Amino acid sequence: MSVPLVASVTPPSRSPAFLLVVALANVGGVIAYLPLLTLLLPLKIEALSGTARVGVFTTCVVVGGIVASLSNILFGWLSDRSLDAGIDRRRWIAGALAALALSYVGIAAAASPAMIVIAVVMCQIAINAVLAPMMAIMSEEVPDAQKGTAGGLLSLGSPIASALTAIIVGPAMLPPTMRLVIVPVAATACLLPLLIHRGAAVQRSDETPTSAQRLPRRDLAIAGASRLLIQTAGVVTTSYLLYYFESIIGADQHAGLPARIGQLLTIAFILPLPVALLLGRLSDLSQRRKPFLLLSSAVAAGGLIGMAFAHDWASGAASFAVYTIGSSVFIALQAAFAMQLLPSTRHRGRDLGLLNLANTLPTLLGPPLTWMLATAHDFSMVMLILAPLTLCGGIGMLAVRAR
Q: Which of 184, 79, 175, 171 is nearest to 122 (CA)?
């Protein structure tokens, strides 16, 4: 038996301009971390640590992931308390952006492995001080009837952030310090419209909802577990993509592989955009999100199976693109659905922080799984294991009782 969602306290609809403001803010949030974690940090560590770069980078990723998980919950909870006191969550974002700029200065100035780890920890704290209240604002100020469309627009974040990364590390060869300056500036520019645009007043009742109104926390737990399964495959496919392609193509083609993978990632991130927007809008109109989530997880699983059996660049690249379309659409639409599953209007920030664990824990789960199942010359087994896990992510959403 499905449980009806608690009625939203937001207006019945918001203008397309506001949805674009929300989407642009999410782009800024992704810019805050994606260029750093994919290329800028590895380049900085390589210049700083030389042959010890792998160990230093791994330390940054693991420690940073733990700090990110805890910080997101903390700042979500703090923004909840601020809202109780009549203080807009936007103030947290404004302060966090200043801290983000300082943390990037710290990364640029780091002169030892210990300093770079400390700087990354400070950066992760600042990033999540931005992301936690930002996602809570989206949950509160985007009506349920438009969350599917908003979820589709959230898929703009990765391709735009990836394009910025390609520009700042491209042929122009910007100095390393300049690269680290551009990122917080670009993130701030994208988030400013949300800081300036004042949303509708958010009503938060002190009354305890009745059993007929209350959303079971099990629904939020199921949504988190489903996303964790999807995100674990995402960590493996993106982190080990270079090694995967090296395992299926000849050694004579390895020299130009990084550039080809860069082009593939750009295309693969762009392809899901129209699909996510279309399915997000359809889910709003039909008021049903579960069928679209199941379909997208099945597409992602099919892409992983294709990657398992690929033996050349063309088939591997096509399969990876199929996987990316499915997984990106799932993450975008599921983020919108999860915002409707929050059991309490008074704890949106905290509960979204707990849900965010499904995004950070895979960084601790994916690498050990790959180490156990993959070899330098064969990734087929790990892909075949990830495929049913990914499908289970979509099937799990069917167990959510809320509609």
A: 184
